[in-house]
Amino acid sequence: MGVVGGSIAGCAVAVAGVRAGAEVTVYERSDGELRDRGLGIVIPPPLHEQTVAAGYLDAAMPTAPVATRVWLTRAPGERSAREIARRPSPVTPCNWGLLWQSLRASATGARYHRGRPVTSVERTPAGGALVRTADGEETYGIVVGADGHGSLTRRVLAPDLRPSPATYAVWRGTLPVSASAEHRRPLRLLREAWVTIGFPGGHGIFYLIPRGGGAGPDARLLAYAIYATPPGRPPVEVGYVRQLADEHFPQEWAEIVARGEHTAMTCHPVTDLHAPSAAEPPFVLAGDAAGVTRPHTASGAVKALQDALCLEEALRTSASPADALRRYARERTPEGARLVELGRRLGRAQVEQPPDWTAMDQGSVDAWCRATLAGTSSYLYADTD
């Protein structure tokens, strides 16, 4: 089995292939240390427990679990924060680099080629798949495209598919908790909850993640994702998030973002896409290669891990590799479509057509969550029927 891409999705499906008894080769284009990437992600606690029990993740990998979501906004005419709602919402925040490192360690049975980008993939006359690099080519019975939103592998299955852009962008960053030590109230709240701050035309998400990089297991970074419509066409300056915070956030939160010393800061437009099929023998798509959802669903790493678990089970229990891939497609294709639609719905409700956050209270937030989900499910809204 060949795996195109060696980040989270690639390492996860490599673990799946090894556990199912396949010989696995991973091609990762970057020759840098992926473990040094330190942005925040969250996964559902049950999925974290499942992947630890299944041997994908090390139980010793640091996480920063919290069980509550708190909704804040800036009090009208003031700079202080007003809490508008508090809801049960268990999540397990992780450091991207630590999650990758744990998956990479669990994929030790696979051959992992770092700094070896794939230049093309194609079908062979005999029904296999050819992977070509600058160093040569190899043929496999199964090739997994885990090569992200610009996937070469996906072009074989859906050559005309293009991403659909949203009208807004997301700014993401991390800051050392120590750099915000004087802001005691926000940090006290973040040790027990993850926080949503609503403002006109967008919202921000804040949570703590393990620091990594040799720091102790209790060392934390403050991670955020802030959504808003930029003043011009994306891309916009990374530093614009400081202006957003100054204009719209409660004072203590604004000071954290606008004047804090970041360890990472990025900005990118929001897009989505969904492949019409997650697999077509001999090709499989996993993670963002199969579909990109708007980040409101917090499903990037989640979907990659779930894809890997599904692939392992299909390979173990199917009569042939082709049958396994067809089963994988039946299970994962509709889930990808559901997440894309959910992301669009959340984007409309929170950025494109947001409520007047200053007029919201516990009851209206509860009703807003139910109306926004409209019968579908999201682990970020755990108690919503």
Automatic annotation (TrEMBL):
Q: Which residues form the FAD-binding domain?
A: 3-341
Q: Name one GO molecular function term.
A: monooxygenase activity
Pfam families in the cross-refs: FAD_binding_3
Q: Which UniProt keywords apply?
A: Monooxygenase, Oxidoreductase
Q: Which residues form the signal peptide?
A: none
Q: Name the InterPro entries on file.
A: FAD-bd, FAD-dep_Monooxygenase_BioMet, FAD/NAD-bd_sf
On whether Oxidoreductase is a keyword of this UniProt record, the answer is yes
PANTHER family cross-referenced by the UniProt entry: MONOOXYGENASE, PUTATIVE (AFU_ORTHOLOGUE AFUA_6G14510)-RELATED
Name of the protein in question: FAD-dependent monooxygenase
Tell me what organism the protein belongs to.
Streptomyces atroolivaceus
